[in-house]
Amino acid sequence: MQLTVTSWNINSVRLRIGMVTDFLARHAPDILCLQETKTPDDQFPAKAFEKAGYVHQAFIGQKGYNGVAILSKLPFSERDAMAMCGRNDARHMTVVLDAAAGAAAGIAIHNFYIPAGGDIPDPEKNEKFAHKLAFLDEIGAWNVAKRPTDRPAILVGDLNIAPYEHDVWSHKQLLDVVSHTPIETTTLEKLRSEGGWTDAARRLRPEPEKLYSWWSYRAADWEASNRGRRLDHIWLSDALTPSLRDVTFLREARGWERPSDHVPVTVTLEL
């Protein structure tokens, strides 16, 4: 059985529902994980996803910011949303595929939206950056307490950190820019490695290949300047790493009309 999982920061699911359903019609991943849906639960476009074949849904959101969703062709019975850092700010959702999912049964899907962290990389001067570091610490504690990689598991999301030198357009110029500062990159890598997670993209496409999933809206010509960062990630537990077959970044999506500043990242497993 082949399993495909896509992660995409959509930057408002209601604003871009047509774009999302077009993507689903063309690429048809088994599971779509969205971040920054910016939509209260009672306004989530559930029917549009049902019509597209994604009848199994778990989402949590709020008006205007944050929000995560998991839309699946495959059934799941367990779901959980953690209130990270004591805030009910809709930044996490987990589901576990059930027996009717065939060879994928029992796989846990963890969808995270880590805070961006503001502009100043100093927790003493910037509460948003302090929140980001606390959020990372909490994921690390979750890794230790809950041991999510003891079972087949996939962790996806907009983690808002580009951890490696070739995950950004200029390593030297971005070392003091939030998303690529040493405290962020080392903390993320520590929790990934100590948690037993494998970075799917870098397993198949190691450095020095440049990989980006985000290009700023501020760029006059994002494609020509190509000042991207790899902020969106898919990690695998040891049980699933041998089944990894492909990872794609749909760069063309950044050039669609009224796009998100992030593009879909998709992993393919052969179970």
Short description:
This protein is an alpha+beta fold. Helices cover 22% and strands 25% of the residues.
Question: What is the topology?
Answer:
Layout: E1 2-9, H1 17-27, E2 31-35, H2 46-51, E3 56-60, E4 68-72, E5 76-80, E6 92-97, E7 108-113, H3 127-146, E8 153-158, H4 182-194, E9 198-199, H5 200-204, E10 214-215, H6 222-225, E11 228-229, E12 232-236, E13 244-249, E14 265-270
- End-to-end distance, in Å? 5 Å
Determine the number of helices (DSSP H or I, runs of at least 4 residues).
Answer: 6
Helix-strand string: EHEHEEEEEHEHEHEHEEEE
Estimate percent helicity. Answer: 10-25%
Name the poorly predicted regions.
none
What does this structure look like?
The chain is an alpha+beta fold and 271 residues long. The protein has a single domain, classed as Endonuclease/exonuclease/phosphatase (Deoxyribonuclease I, Chain A), CATH 3.60.10.10. The protein is built from six helices and 14 strands. A six-stranded mixed beta sheet has the order 3-4-2-1-14-13. Strands 5-6-7-8-12-9 form a six-stranded mixed beta sheet. Strand 7, helix 3 and strand 8 form a beta-alpha-beta unit. Helix 3 packs parallel to helix 4. The longest helix is centred in the middle third of the chain and has 20 residues. The radius of gyration is 17 Å and the shape is globular. The termini are close together.
Summarize this structure as a short list of keywords or feature phrases.
22% helix; 271 residues; globular; 6-stranded mixed beta sheet; alpha+beta; Deoxyribonuclease I, Chain A; single chain
